[in-house]
Every structure is written in structure tokens, then in C-alpha cells.
Amino acid sequence: MAGSSNVLVGVTxxxxxxxxxxxxxxxxxxxxxxxxxATEAALRFVPEETLAIATGKSIHTEKTWWERSGRIEHVxxxxxxxxxxxxxxxxxxxxxxxxxxxxxLLSATVLAGAENILWAPAMNPEMWRSPATVRNVETLKSWGxxxxxxxxxxxxxxxEEPGVGRLADEAEILAAxxxxxxxx
Length: 184
Hints:
Helices cover 41% and strands 18% of the residues. It has helices at residues 20-29, 48-55, 62-65, 73-80, 91-98, 105-111, 125-129, 131-142, 170-183, and strands at 6-11, 33-38, 83-89, 117-121, 146-147, 151-153, 163-166.
């Protein structure tokens, strides 16, 4: 089992969000302390309660970001995390960060000084190949961000042919997390 680290899992709004609880469970089994941020779009695909059960604690959301607690949640999360894993990472989430938008809790956390970022993209193959996504991935890589996947296979949609865009499997994501933590 790997050493314990603080891993913040960001869940974004793609169909692959339903796989996030499995990734979170594997991180906890590996001995990591996990917090989870879910975007509003992610909560359309996976219930907050499901993520809370997988994480073992409350989930950070847009609602918690704007509570009158006096906490600066995005800054606190960025400082807490040894690694921010965004799984699944949509084209939208990568675009927001790559152009400096911090208008939701997840993107604000990444931009608030989180230093070790790992993206696990999941999207339609055409979206993955689009010039805008390619440019955004290259920008993020140039900042030192890492990527796990995407994988090749059948998509959640009714696509007949497999393509590159599937969320990497849990074992591959966990291996990328361990590697990113070693290099941090």
C-alpha cells in the first residue's frame, strides 16, 4: 500500500462521472485521505449522496463554496491537496482552467495554487481530437499538469466504432496518481 497523501478528486459533468465513486474507493483503499469536489453538471450524472458515501465525508459543491462560513474553500482545498485528480475531466473543465476561468469551485481550486494536477479525460472522440481541446491539453501540460488517458474503446453514446475518449480504468488512474505523488 502506498503512503497516505491528501488527494482532492474533482468530478466534472460527463457521463463517465458515474465511475468516480469507484476511483474514490480505490484511492481510499490505497490509504489516501480523499476530499471530493463535484461540479453542478457532475451532480446530474451521479448523486451527491453516492459521492459522499464513496468519500466517507461531505462533498464540496457550489453550494458549500457560497455558504456563510467565512472559509475561503477553494484556497483551503488547494493548500490541503498533495494532488488534485480530475476524473472524469471534460473538455469544458480543461478549457476553463487553461484560459484561467475560476468561476466554479473546482476551477477556482486548481487556479488557487494547487501544484500537482492530474487530469483523467473522458469525452467523445471528436471532442478529444478538436483543435481547441488539443491546444488546451498542450497548455496544461506546459504548466506541468499530467494526464491519465483517455483510453480507447466503445463510448457511452450509441457510437458504432470505438475511439479514444473513454475514461482510463481505475487501475491506470491509481497508478498515475501514485506516480504523480512520487514526482511532487
